[in-house]
Write a structure and sequence with these properties.
Helix content: 25-40%
Number of helices: 7
Keywords: ATP-binding, Cytochrome c-type biogenesis, Membrane, Nucleotide-binding, Translocase, Transport
CATH architecture of one domain: 3-Layer(aba) Sandwich
Distance between the termini: 53 Å
InterPro entries: AAA+_ATPase (IPR003593), ABC_transporter-like_ATP-bd (IPR003439), ABC_transptr_haem_export_CcmA (IPR005895), P-loop_NTPase (IPR027417)
Structural class: alpha/beta
Protein name: Cytochrome c biogenesis heme-transporting ATPase CcmA
Pfam families: ABC_tran
Order of helices and strands: EEEHEEHEHHHEHEEH
CATH class of one domain: Alpha Beta
Bound molecules: adenosine-5'-triphosphate
Radius of gyration: 18 Å
Number of strands: 9
CATH topology of one domain: Rossmann fold
Shape: globular
Length: 220
Amino acid sequence: MSFAPDQIKIDLEARQLCCERDDRILFDQLDLRVENGDLLQLAGPNGAGKTTLLRLLAGLNRDYDGELLWHGQPLYDDFSSYAAQRLYQGHLAAVKKALTPIENLRWLVSQWSVDDARLWQALDEVELAGYEETPCQQLSAGQQRRVALARLCIAPAALWILDEPFTALDKSGVAWLEKRIQKHVEAGGAVIITSHHALENIASLKQLDLGQLAMNRGQA
Ligand SMILES: Nc1ncnc2c1ncn2[C@@H]1O[C@H](COP(=O)(O)OP(=O)(O)OP(=O)(O)O)[C@@H](O)[C@H]1O
């Protein structure tokens, strides 16, 4: 059975979100909403708070003021239903180096029941055919990133939250990932991404520039 992200209602909202680190306000009074078909790129200079915001949106950190809502209800009221619909990829590839790509993939998608044949196919899609049973410590940084990204071919999650996913990818990897993101958004899924990589080729792109917000705050 194929996965149709448009069959799942995506409605993630931040209202008046505020976050401080080390007595420094990273962002405040921040409002955003992500729904089916949205691609939101968080922009801003190093240290602006992009990863911090992404982790809040993924439900990995509760150190904030303001509201985070899923389907109009507080995110943590029914967190498991939210977690089942979102896929988070952190800025590190986060593969276990002692394991092979196929073993890593089994572990990375263990929250969903996925046929093993589909995992082999996903590794083929990310151009890792022939490396499926090689320990990841023997793979390059870009190949390890591809192992983690193979999840995007498999996981039935409608909302992708991706932190610098282009890191270490070569030209063909970048082109593949851009297409994969575009396809997901066009199919009715949604993507929130931090990336210093330009994503201008994707028509529905929206940007939220945390550096600009901080500058506006300074001038207010
Ligand atoms: N666990 C933490 N404890 C204290 N301060 C933190 C913590 N994590 C991040 N920070 C601080 O919060 C600020 C924002 O960090 P964050 O990683 O969100 O920035 P970023 O915009 O993603 O940067 P980059 O483009 O370099 O990845 C930085 O000044 C950082 O030092």
